[in-house]
Structures are given as structure tokens and as C-alpha cells.
Amino acid sequence: MAFTLEQVVPWGRSFEEYRAMFDLGEADLAQRILGCGDGPASFNATLTRQGGAVVSVDPLYAFSAGEIGQRIDETFVTVLQQTRENAGEFVWEQIRSVEELGEIRRAAMQEFLADYPTGKAQGRYREAALPVLPFEEAAFDLAVCSHFLFLYSAHFSLEFHLASLRELCRVAREVRVFPLLELGARPSRYREPVVAELSAEGYDVQIRRVTYEFQKQGNEMLVISVP
To answer: What is the pLDDT of residues 209-223, one digit of tens each?
Structure first.
């Protein structure tokens, strides 16, 4: 049985994972960044502490830190159990075991929870959901979207993906999406249609290899530049 989830779950990744997933250099991190679908990731907390300019959006931010913490606790065991049962879908090199994965994810999400009340008051965590974002055109230099688009291809249509990517391109000059796999470590059914359609619409669309690989063959990101 392949790795499956009934719905999008709160599952946060670390700042270093974001850097590797999206091939973020120092010049990238100095830009105005939008993290879309960040959930309880620690990217915003860490980058803000380092002096960066970042806003995260997610429907999860409708809830309090306590409520989000409870949702994390409710799904934590389920996600790790699914990972353990489908260990063959993953590359156990940078992360060596399910137990280490749990430690890394828990640490990232605890960092998020500690930062969340202050960050929300500062406007760094905004409740919003694709395909409609509450920002002006070109409000950001770079938008990154981790483990939402493509990963949940079974849950969201091709039309949703295209509308979401157009919206990200409206609010940011460059968009990076990772990974291009869906749950079960399969290439997303929307990968080729999205590239073809957006290229036909005049966007500069590239698939770029990155050093990060946890899902097997999940080492590519989609990069879209606004014409």
C-alpha cells in the first residue's frame, strides 16, 4: 500500500530543508519571499530571526497556536506510521530513520509554534488559501510552495493547480514548487500538463534538479518566471 492521506495535514519542515528543496542561496534569501502553504514549518521563524523578509500563508493560520499544536499531535503518529509502513518510498540518507524524521519534524514545528503568536501579530502569518491570495501584483520577489501543489494531486484538480500557479505568478516575480511527486512517490499526473499549458501562456517554465531528496525521485522543483 502506498503512502496516502485523506486530507492535507499540518506537517512542518525546517529552514535547512527549505534551503535545499528550493535551492535557496544568500541572494534568494535576501529577497521578499512568500511561503505558500507553509503550515507549521520553521522557515519563517528562522529567516525572520536572520533578518529576512518573509510572509507565510496557510488556511491553518485561522487557528491559535494551541489549536495548531493539538492538530499536529493528532496527526503526528499517523504520518510517522504511514512513513514506517512505506519506508521503501523514501531515501534514508540525510534523514536516517523514521525516529530521526520525527525528531526533525517535531523540532521544526515547535520552533514554528514558539514564533507563531508574535509572527501572526506582525502579519508574517496570514490566513489565506490558493487559488486566491490577498496581495497586490508583484508584492514579492520569490514565492515558494512546499509539499502542497502536486503532492496532493489526488485531492485537487488540474484546473486548481493552474489557477494556483497563475495566482502565485501574479504576486511574485518567480515561483518555485517542490516536489513534483504526488503521495505514493509517483510523478504527479499534472506535471506535464502544467508545464505545457503555462509555457503556452508565455511563462518561462523550467524543471530544475535540487540536492534534496527524501521521497525517491523527489529531487526536482518547478521554477516559473513571470514574462
So the answer is: 999 999 888 999 999
- Which of 18, 62, 14, 16 is CA-nearest to residue 40? 14
User: What CATH number is given to the structural domain containing 115?
Assistant: 3.40.50.150
Residue among 174, 149, 136, 171 at smallest CA distance from 27: 174
Beta bridge partners of 126: 57
Torsion of Cα atoms, 226 then 160 then 119 then 174, to 10°: -10
Q: How many helical (H) and strand (E) elements, i.e. helices and strands, does the chain have?
A: 7, 9
* Residue 20 in domain: yes
**1 within some domain:** no
Reply yes or no on whether the pLDDT at 163 is more than 70. Answer: yes
Query: Are 9 and 70 contacting, i.e. CB atoms less than 8 angstroms apart?
Result: no
Per DSSP, the three-state class of 37 is coil
Predicted TM-score of the model (pTM): 0.93
Q: What is the dihedral of CA 130, 143, 63, 80, to 10 degrees?
A: 100
